[in-house]
Design goal:
heterodimer, A: 149 residues, alpha/beta, Rossmann fold, 5 helices, 15% strand, globular, B: 325 residues, 2 domains, 5-stranded mixed beta sheet, 3-stranded antiparallel beta sheet, 8 strands
Chain lengths: 149, 325
C-alpha cells in the first residue's frame, strides 16, 4: 500500500509554499500583480509581515515542520527598506538558515529569498513561477521525518 | 593536586579581604568529569581543581541566581581558561554581565583539556575522579584502585582543543600559568577535521536518539534567557513530544539562536547523555559565520551580534535572476 506521501508524489505534485511578503514592497508587488490580472501558480500562501527583517528563522522552520514544501521570504530591494536595513538583516538570517538546513541534509532551495518592489507586479509573478518550478523539481518535503525506503 | 600555591594564596586573599563575593571555578566531579565549584569562604578554595579533566565550562553559573545571590555590588572572581575568557567576552558584548561584576583570574599556557567521553570510551573501568598528570605528549591517568595508565594526548583531547589558537587569556585581572605547561607540539596544532556534510539520513539517526532532556541548553553559558522560547506553550515553537521531527526542530532552533554567538566550547556535547554530535553543529555554524560575515564570536567585548548588523559587501542571499525584463 502506498503511504499518503507516495500517493501525493504519484499524482501531479502541487507544492505548498508559504510566502512571507513585506508590507511595503513585496505585498504591494503581489497586489499589483493581481490588479494587472497576471497569472501565477496558486501554490503560495501569502503571509503579510511588516518587514522581511521581521521573519524569524523560527517561522521558516515552523512552516517546514507543519507541512510546507518551501518557504519564500520577499522584501524590498537593497536600499529601499522602509525600516532602512531590515531586508539586509533578513538576508543574513535566511542565508544562515539555508546553510544550516543544507548541513543537516535539507535542500537549501526550499527556503528562498527575493526582492520585489511595489512597482514590480510582473517580477512578482515571475518569482512565484520560478519558486514553484524549482520546488516542484525538488519534490515533496519529508517534513523532518524519515524518508520511506 | 589542587591549585598552585600562588593561585591558592591569591584566591584566599580575594575572599578574605572581601574584594570579591565568591570565586567560581572548576572542581573534581564525582565521575571522570569536572564540575563547577562556587567558593564563598577562603576554606572552600581547597576544592578547586585545575587538572585537564576538570574542564566543565563553569561560566554557565555566572548568570545563575546562585552566583548573583547577595551583595551584587561586589564582583565574582572566575577561574577562566583562555577559551573561557573568549566566552566571557561574548557575555560582556551581550551585556549579560558587566565588566565591573567580574574579576577574571586567567589561566595561561593552556594545552587543552580532556574529553570525558573519549576517556570513558578508552578506560571504561574508571571509577571516581582520577588523578591526571601531563607528561610530554601523554596524559598519565591514575584512577581509584588502578595502575597509572599513559594515554597519548591527541587520543583524549577535546575536539575544540586540537587546533585551538588561543593559549593565553584574552583579558584578565590576574593571570597564573597552569602547572607544568609546555608549548604545544606540532602534531597537536593540526586542526580537528572540518565538519562534513553527512546528509539527512545521518542527522535523522542522531536526532532520533535525542531524549529532549534539555541538558545541552542548560549547560550552555550563552543560553541564559529567563524566558526561553523552548519552554513557551503559547505560541509553542517546538512541540514537546519526543519525535524525530520535533527533536530536529528543537536542535535547529537551539543552534540558530546560538549562531554568531556560540564559541563552540563543546559543553553541550559534553552534557549530552545520549552522545549526540552537537559540537559538530556548533563548529559548523561558527565556521559559516566566519566565512560569510567574518564574524568570530567572543573576540570583541564591544562587538555586535552579526545577525543584527550588515555589511554592504555581504554575500548575495537571493538567487532569483529575472530574464528578459
Amino acid at each position: 500500500m502506498l503511504s499518503p506521501t507516495d500517493e501525493r508524489a504519484q499524482a501531479e505534485f502541487e507544492p505548498t509554499i508559504v510566502a512571507f511578503l513585506c508590507n511595503w514592497c513585496s505585498y504591494a508587488g503581489a497586489d499589483l500583480a493581481g490588479t494587472q490580472r497576471l497569472t501565477y501558480p496558486a501554490n503560495v500562501r501569502v503571509i503579510r509581515v511588516m518587514c522581511s527583517g521581521r521573519v524569524d528563522p523560527g517561522y521558516v522552520l515552523q512552516c517546514l515542520l507543519q507541512g510546507a514544501d518551501g518557504v519564500l521570504v520577499s522584501g524590498c530591494h537593497h536600499g529601499d527598506c522602509h525600516y532602512v536595513c531590515g531586508n539586509r538583516i533578513a538576508e543574513r538570517r535566511v542565508t544562515v538558515m539555508r546553510r544550516l538546513l543544507e548541513f543537516v541534509g535539507v535542500e537549501p532551495g526550499r527556503v528562498r529569498l527575493t526582492w520585489v518592489s511595489g512597482a514590480e507586479g510582473r517580477r512578482f509573478a515571475r518569482v512565484i513561477d520560478d519558486v514553484v518550478r524549482d520546488i516542484k523539481a525538488l519534490g515533496p518535503f519529508h517534513g523532518f521525518e524519515r524518508r520511506a525506503s | 593536586m589542587s591549585v598552585p600555591a600562588a593561585l591558592d594564596r591569591h584566591l584566599r586573599d580575594l575572599l578574605s579581604s572581601g574584594q570579591v563575593r565568591c570565586v567560581l571555578g572548576p572542581a573534581a566531579g564525582c565521575g571522570p568529569r569536572g564540575t563547577a565549584h562556587l567558593a564563598r569562604t577562603p576554606e572552600a578554595v581547597d576544592r578547586f581543581e585545575l587538572s585537564p579533566l576538570a574542564c566543565a565550562n563553569v561560566l554557565v553559573h555566572l548568570t545563575s541566581e546562585e552566583a548573583r545571590r547577595d551583595d551584587a555590588r561586589r564582583p565574582v572572581a572566575v577561574l577562566a581558561r583562555p577559551c573561557e575568557t573568549r566566552m566571557l567576552n561574548q557575555l560582556l558584548s551581550e551585556r549579560a554581565i558587566e565588566r565591573d561584576e567580574l574579576h577574571v583570574v586567567g589561566l595561561g599556557g593552556c594545552r587543552g583539556v580532556i574529553d570525558s567521553r573519549k576517556l570513558r570510551e578508552r578506560l571504561p573501568e574508571l571509577r571516581g575522579f582520577p588523578e591526571v598528570r601531563e607528561e610530554g605528549d601523554t596524559f598519565v591517568i591514575e584512577g581509584e584502585g588502578m595502575e597509572p595508565v599513559s594515554v597519548p594526548r591527541n587520543e583524549l583531547l577535546l575536539d575544540r582543543c586540537s587546533g585551538c589558537d588561543i593559549s593565553e587569556p584574552l583579558f584578565h585581572d590576574h593571570t597564573f600559568p597552569l602547572a607544568d605547561a609546555a608549548p604545544t607540539s606540532a602534531a597537536e596544532a593540526e586542526c580537528a577535521p572540518e565538519p562534513s556534510d553527512e546528509g539527512w539520513d545521518y542527522w535523522a539517526d542522531q536526532f532520533e536518539r535525542c531524549i529532549r532532556c534539555y541538558a545541552c541548553r542548560d549547560a550552555c553559558p550563552l543560553c541564559y534567557c529567563e524566558d526561553c522560547v523552548l519552554d513557551r506553550l503559547r505560541p509553542m515553537w517546538v512541540p514537546r513530544s519526543v519525535s524525530l521531527k520535533n527533536n530536529t526542530a528543537y536542535q535547529l532552533i537551539r543552534v540558530l539562536h546560538l549562531s554568531g554567538r556560540c564559541t563552540a566550547c563543546g559543553e553541550c556535547e559534553q552534557a549530552c547523555p545520549v552522545d549526540l554530535p552537537l559540537l559538530t553543529l556548533a563548529r559548523k555554524m561558527e565556521q559559516e559565520m566566519r566565512e560569510l560575515y567574518g564574524a568570530r564570536s567572543g573576540f570583541d567585548p564591544e562587538g555586535r551580534h552579526p545577525m543584527s548588523v550588515f555589511d554592504p559587501n555581504d554575500p548575495e542571499g537571493t538567487d532569483f535572476e529575472e530574464q528578459g525584463r
